[in-house]
Amino acid sequence: MLTVKNLKKKFVRYNKKKQKEEFYADNGITFQAKEGEIIGILGPNGAGKTTLLRMIAGILEPTEGEIDFDGLTYQNDEIKIKKSIAYLSGNTKIYNTFSTYQLLKMCCDIYGVDKETSEKRIKKIADTLHMNEFLYNKIEKLSTGQTQRVNIARCMVHNPKYYILDEATSGLDIISSQVILDFIKKEKIKKKTILYSTHYMEEAENICDYVIMINKGVIIQEGTPDEIKKKTKTTNLRDAFFALIGGDQHEE
Q: Side-chain half-sphere of 174: how many Cα atoms within 13 Å?
């Protein structure tokens, strides 16, 4: 189980008068994610979703709070945690001059996966993400959707227990988006824990077991999609979000 308790991240910025001021990108985030559960982290751009996931992935150090993976913390078991998680950012840069196969093989080597297991995993991943047609093509020649599938593939080679996915389908065509969503559902069946950040409310409603809505760095509502709709007396998560922030559907 992943436990996040009172997580805060403070940054410094300069205002229009060029005065230094502090602000919290995330301020007191608390939740748990169980085995075999897809947790949706929902909110508009700038809500604090990416900062939150980067802290959970060990890329950013929290200003305050605790992150616990099955009793392991970054303070005493960082290497073990890093081997158990896969982090995908929406703007991940990869090696364009490599072929898809070369990149996945390199990732296997980095994680210490032996040659025989590497070949089996790459074949299985290529089948799962429908990548066989471009497995030996250079990444620089791939479409945006194909490149994102490669990004997810490189996260899978070490068989992680936790997936931290930030805007995994943003800007993708409908076919690539569906391939990724189908993959997420299959990993859930394997009892993997998945954090799924998105601003596509309809998408989250279809795949998430539990939803955490964030705005301006704080949780404004959480629960199953049905629970949130019931609490806000709405019929979909998008309307629920706008009801919570007191806006209308034209606000962004």
A: 0
